[in-house]
Phosphoinositide phospholipase C
Amino acid sequence: SNPLHREVHQDMEQPLCHYFIASSHNTYLSGDQLLSQSRAEMYARVLQAGCRCVEVDCWDGPDGEPVVHHGYTLTSKILFRDVAETINKYAFIKNEFPVILSIENHCSIQQQQKIAQYLKEIFGDKLDLSSVSTGDPRQLPSPQDLKGKILVKV
């Protein structure tokens, strides 16, 4: 691939909502939506390919450990913790622009608290905990402002 294609040649100082963002749906799946394997490595693959928004479908798992899989199907389950650790490892290898975790939450309060704990523990200072008023999208920070940050969208 042409290395020039990896460089950003545009103004990255506008509000985040002014940009098209490369997003992944059912990121964890290695194949079809009904029977395939869920794999944490899929997050590494898409992040290195330039994706900046990944989907994480969270469900209650055994032993109080939230899991990621495509609900009501036969796809395999992976630990939320493993997904978060993989995202943390690969989020900023190819570029520093923010990564958005699109979390589909199906968890009990107890397992939601575990997810919040893992997000704080694993991402640390990378986790952007500033709250944004959704009333005026022009007030959103820019990709430049958010370099190196993990955003959570639920």
Summary: The mean pLDDT is 91.
